[in-house]
Design goal:
Helix content: 25-40%
Strand content: 15-25%
Order of helices and strands: HEHHEEHEEEEEEHEEHEH
Number of helices: 7
Radius of gyration: 26 Å
Shape: globular
Number of strands: 12
Structural class: alpha+beta
Oligomer: single chain
Distance between the termini: 68 Å
């Protein structure tokens, strides 16, 4: 009898182990990969198949309250390093500006004029990619036919993208309360890279490059991996995750108001402007608490 039980036990163990070994062999990262050695373990889904986190899209009539907020993201803050690095693309990663630059170069997204007091996204205000190259003196490489000498096309080499000079971003977002779903949420509307270059007089000048509608960027940001920390290379977030999950640092410089002024325009000094920033920040945070009764 003991022999029968022992035989059954061995048989069941073998049946369980065989599929596990087969699965491990089939999906193993450490198998040969055509001579290519990956630097990261693969995720459960290929990055090219990643989709943006879905929004809850409320009806216009259900928006009981809303406020448009303008922020500045400073990439020199440590929390924003995943948006700034790597300077040179590699290891399936590239910076936020390199991503935007390449998408605009390939015609996958459109940029629009930056205006301090309004944002208009129409064909009349569109910023062409060639205009950006010319305005900021980006070096362009040309492909020439060796026989005819005709120019076949142009491209920008990785080292010539002014990635290091883009150290700030403007961000436009709207906070709102959806009465139908009882949701207090925020939606990013547009983002604008701000480039810092030295002029002919040796003075460092800042220029907003263009506004880019954020919803047009999201499908591509969701496919761009970001490394959040040096301590854990397995934290496989995407650039879209960083924004939607609010894993970035920023400060408010303007909110929607009757005169359409930013904080520095109606405060006497930077200290007063900072107090106004904190007041607006507290107001936005406390509003959700004020919507409910306990």
């Amino acid at each position: 009898m003991k022999t029968i039980y022992r035989t059954l036990l061995l048989g069941i163990t073998a049946l369980i182990a065989i599929p596990m070994v087969a699965q491990e062999t089939e999906n193993s990262f450490f198998d040969g990969n055509g001579g290519l050695v990956e630097s990261n373990l693969p995720t459960s889904i290929d990055l090219s198949e990643r989709k943006p986190i879905e929004y809850n899209n409320p009806r216009t009539d259900d928006i009981l309250w809303q406020k448009v907020v303008y922020r500045i993201i400073d990439l020199r803050e440590k929390i924003n390093f995943p948006l700034y690095f790597p300077i040179t693309s590699g290891d399936h990663r590239q910076s936020l500006f390199t991503t935007i630059f390449r998408l605009h170069e390939e015609g996958k997204i459109k940029g629009y004029n930056y205006e301090a007091e309004r944002e208009i996204f129409t064909d009349e205000t569109e910023v062409k990619f060639d205009e950006i190259l010319k305005k900021y003196n980006v070096i362009v490489s040309y492909k020439v036919d060796s026989v005819s000498g005709d120019t076949l096309g142009q491209s920008v080499e990785e080292v010539d993208i002014p990635n290091q000079e883009v150290i700030k971003y403007y961000l436009k977002e709207v906070w709102y309360f959806d009465k139908n779903n009882s949701i207090y949420a925020v939606r990013i509307l547009a983002i604008c890279p701000k480039i810092y270059l030295t002029n002919n007089d040796g003075v460092l000048e800042s220029n907003p490059i263009a506004w880019y509608p954020f919803d047009a960027l999201r499908p591509y940001l969701a496919q761009q991996e970001a490394l959040l920390t040096d301590r854990n290379n397995g934290a496989r977030e995407t650039l879209d995750d960083l924004f939607i999950k609010r894993k970035f640092g920023s400060y408010i410089y303007k909110v929607s108001n009757l005169r359409n002024r930013n904080f520095l325009e109606y405060n006497n000094n930077s200290e007063e402007a900072h107090k106004e920033q904190e007041r607006i920040k507290t107001e936005i945070i406390n509003l959700e608490q004020d919507l409910w009764e306990y």
